[in-house]
Amino acid sequence: MPIVWGCVGRGDARPKVFVIACKRCKRHILAGAETFPTDNIRVDCPLCGEKRRYRPTEVFLGEPSTLLGEQNKMDMERIRVNRRRRGMD
After folding, report:
1. 19: closest CA among 31, 27, 32, 5?
2. What is the pLDDT of residue 57?
3. For the chain, which residues make up each domain, given as ranges?
4. Is the model more confident about 70 or about 44?
């Protein structure tokens, strides 16, 4: 997914990607689009599990919720624990 860098303030550059606001949990999640969508897209929220369609007008450049990073960390830890239990690590 391409990342667009936007400058805010004095040299504070933060990556911007296409995101949507989940209609259930209201968190910003990745839209899964590499370019701005022209048709409706279907997105599954990794935080609350909501599966919905979103119009192109609901997609915007922004930052994903910080909870997505926490979710990824928890998933990676769960994978490590499962590998240790199986003797794979």
Report:
1. 31
2. 94
3. 4-86
4. 44
